[in-house]
Design brief:
Blueprint: H1 19-45, E1 50-54, E2 57-64, E3 67-72, E4 79-82, H2 85-92, H3 98-103, E5 108-111, H4 114-119, H5 121-129, H6 161-171, E6 173-176, H7 182-198, E7 206-210, E8 216-221, H8 229-235, H9 238-242, E9 251-253, E10 262-267, E11 273-274, H10 289-292, E12 296-301, E13 312-315, E14 336-339, E15 346-350, E16 355-357, E17 365-374, H11 387-406
Parallel strand pairs: 1-4
Antiparallel strand pairs: 1-2, 2-3, 4-5, 6-15, 7-8, 7-11, 8-10, 9-17, 10-17, 12-15, 12-17, 13-14, 13-16
Helix pairs in contact: 1-5, 7-8
């Protein structure tokens, strides 16, 4: 069977590095092994050199000849970042990415901008992990018979599971029709109405946005399963469990009765402030790809999702591409695909598939998101946090991400950040 288990590190195996020792021995060894691979990505992305300063440790990374090389000191033409030892340790071990450090305010930029630092992330992964930076033509999108993959295809739960799994592994997303009934969706939607009406900003249990009428509203209810008995019943349903059995991987679900297991989203028209319509990103963009991917994000459509109501969009195959975790380069050759869906349909996307939700135009959209995580491997223990601690951590991260976008990272909410190849796969041809 197909697999989506891309993990190369284990949860809990990160250590507090001796920065000086790492730069004197381990980093040169990585460059000796992967320096040419990293240099190819550096040239492809058109980067400036990167200089990093951690206390008294000051080095620059730049291409010399045909390989990325480490130089002592801070080069005058380099993007210059200042990190503390813990942040550097997390960066090189993929606990936090360049984007994740920026979102948390844990990087100081002495020269250059956040875009320049984040653009280095794929090259850092090539240098440290041996993952080639994506180039045009590197990935193909093929069906199980070897022909072109039909990116507009949708499934039902009655279709052969192996076909669904092959599509998911190849494209990084699914559309599954008619999983739930309209009456089930209406009951959960009514619970969402009540949760939005009861939400208060000081509780820290929601994302807030300003709608077209000028009023702030709870756009995303965190821990929505706690407020909806109907949703808890649905999350325990066998239909949800089946979504994690399309590949040969073992997936686990948060306990709907005791954990923060789902979010309820209301996407209103004309949002002018706050996080409602999220630009292109990977869920592993802030870090941990090598420890968690691919988790599965499941969208349960309480209302129809289409161009008028602001449906989900994905970049097909991007879960297999070493590209930065936020924003989409104009020269990326993978197709951008819209995922229209009806009430009761389900969308599934991998945690490292680039995706976004574009703004609704004429109709409000409602959706519940839950997720399935790859099961721990023998001897591996997943960290467990109390629900309030999880919410506080996420609220802080979400607010930091909003501020980062407002400061201009990734072009803010530009039209490019919500562009899809309408009218089929469009853009690059699926091969």
């Amino acid at each position: 069977m197909a697999s989506l288990d891309f993990r190369t590190r284990r949860m809990g195996d990160e250590t507090a590095l001796d920065v000086g020792a790492f730069c004197e021995s381990e980093l040169p060894a990585r460059l000796a092994e992967n320096g040419r691979l990293a240099a190819r990505g550096y040239a492809r992305l058109g980067l400036a050199p990167l200089a990093f300063e951690i206390g008294e440790v000051r080095h620059s990374l730049r291409v010399e000849g045909d390989a990325l090389a480490l130089r002592d000191g801070i080069d005058d033409d380099a993007t210059h970042v200042v990190l503390d030892p813990r942040a550097f340790s997390e960066l090189v071990q993929d606990v936090s990415s360049a984007l994740g450090l920026g979102m948390r305010g844990r990087v100081e930029l002495r020269r250059g901008g956040m875009d320049q630092f984040v653009s280095w992330e794929p090259v850092l992964r090539a240098m440290l992990d041996g993952r080639p930076v994506h180039e045009p033509g590197m990935l193909t999108l093929r069906a199980h018979d070897g022909g072109p993959l039909d990116l507009e295809r949708s499934f039902t739960l009655e279709d052969p599971p192996e076909e669904i799994g092959e599509f998911l592994a190849e494209a990084g997303f699914l559309r599954i029709r008619g999983v739930f009934g309209a009456d089930e969706m209406a009951e959960i939607s009514a619970d969402l109405d009540a949760a939005v009406a009861e939400a208060r900003p000081e509780e820290g249990r929601a994302w807030w946005a300003r709608g077209g009428d000028g009023a702030m509203y709870a756009a995303r209810i965190l821990g929505f399963n706690e407020k909806s008995p109907a949703l808890r019943r649905l999350l325990r349903d066998e239909r949800i469990a089946r979504l994690g059995r399309f590949t040969g991987d073992a997936y686990v679900q948060r306990d709907p009765d005791s954990e923060d297991a789902a979010e309820g989203l209301t996407k209103k028209i004309g949002v002018t402030d706050g996080i409602s319509d999220v630009p292109w990103h990977k869920d592993c963009g802030p870090g941990m790809h090598s420890r968690r991917c691919c988790a599965l994000t499941i969208g349960i459509c309480l209302t129809p999702a289409d161009r008028e109501s602001g449906e989900l969009g994905v970049v097909a195959g991007s879960h297999r591409a070493n590209v930065q975790g936020g924003g989409v380069r104009r020269d990326l050759d993978l197709p951008r695909v819209a995922l229209p869906a009806d009430t009761g349909d389900v969308t599934v996307h991998c945690s490292c598939t680039l995706h976004m939700s574009r703004p609704p135009v004429s109709r409000e959209r409602r959706v519940v998101y839950t997720s399935l995580a790859l099961a721990p491997r023998p001897g591996e223990v997943l960290p467990r946090m109390e629900r309030d601690a999880v919410r506080k951590s996420r609220a802080h991260l979400d607010d930091a991400g909003r501020r980062l976008v407002e400061r201009g990272y990734g072009g803010g909410k530009s039209a490019e950040q919500f562009r899809l190849d309408d009218g089929g796969s469009g853009g690059a041809k699926a091969r």
